[in-house]
Design a protein that fits this description.
This protein is an all-alpha fold. It is 88% helix and 0% strand. The mean pLDDT is 91.
Length: 216
């Protein structure tokens, strides 16, 4: 019976790694599409969202099966319950990649080369957080998870810079108001991706230590 349980736990870990790879690719495509106003790549990121949703359902089903049939305890229980929480945040990251890509398509149609410099930095920093949170889970790395938690302040500061850039852009180029608002929305999505990476890392910490800073 234990051998079956161990095999299912390994499947869970592999499925989580796969979902992590899927959202990393979706974000990478969304960022490249935004930078190059590449509508084809943006559509690829949007289409990937349904695959990410299916992966979430697959993992959720496996977790519930483990909880109901195997009744895990201690660290095994924390691993399974943490995975259930993490996939919600991972799925929402996929949603935000699609959201960014939808705005990118609109920007490309308008044919106006309007940019916020800080967006490139936000994209880089949120990617660091996302990759770090997934790596922390895969390797059960408490220090890596902590690094992601501490990184959140950087992304929050960059979002404040983005708001300032938008105000300056509107003042200088009044006819770019709609595009500026779209870019601010993209900045907000990047900030949310950072928040979800933080949530993932907090559940990694819980899976290892049994402690969680927030009450759920």
């Amino acid at each position: 019976m234990r051998d079956v349980f161990e095999s299912q736990l390994k499947t869970l870990k592999d499925d989580m790694i796969e979902m992590g790879s899927m959202i990393e690719k979706a974000i990478e495509n969304a960022i490249r599409a935004l930078n190059n106003r590449d509508t084809e790549l943006a559509r690829a990121a949007i289409e990937a969202d349904s695959e990410i949703d299916e992966q979430e359902k697959k993992i959720e089903s496996l977790c519930l099966k483990l909880l109901l049939h195997q009744q895990p305890v201690a660290s095994d229980l924390r691993m399974v319950s943490s995975a259930l929480k993490m996939i919600t945040d991972m799925e929402r990251i996929g949603d935000h990649a699609a959201d960014i890509s939808e705005i990118t398509i609109c920007l490309a149609k308008n044919n106006k080369n309007v940019n916020l410099k800080v967006l490139h930095e936000m994209a880089k920093e949120t990617t660091v957080m996302l990759v770090g949170s997934i790596d922390a889970y895969v390797n059960k790395d408490l220090d890596r998870a902590q690094e992601v938690l501490e990184h959140d302040d950087i992304v929050d500061s960059l979002f404040l810079e983005a708001k300032k850039e938008v105000i300056q852009l509107i003042r200088k180029e009044e006819d770019h108001g709609e595009e500026a608002a779209d870019l601010l929305m993209i900045a907000k999505y990047f900030e949310r991706i950072g928040d979800h990476a933080v949530n993932i890392s907090e559940w990694v910490v819980f899976s290892i230590t049994g402690k969680h800073d927030k009450n759920y």
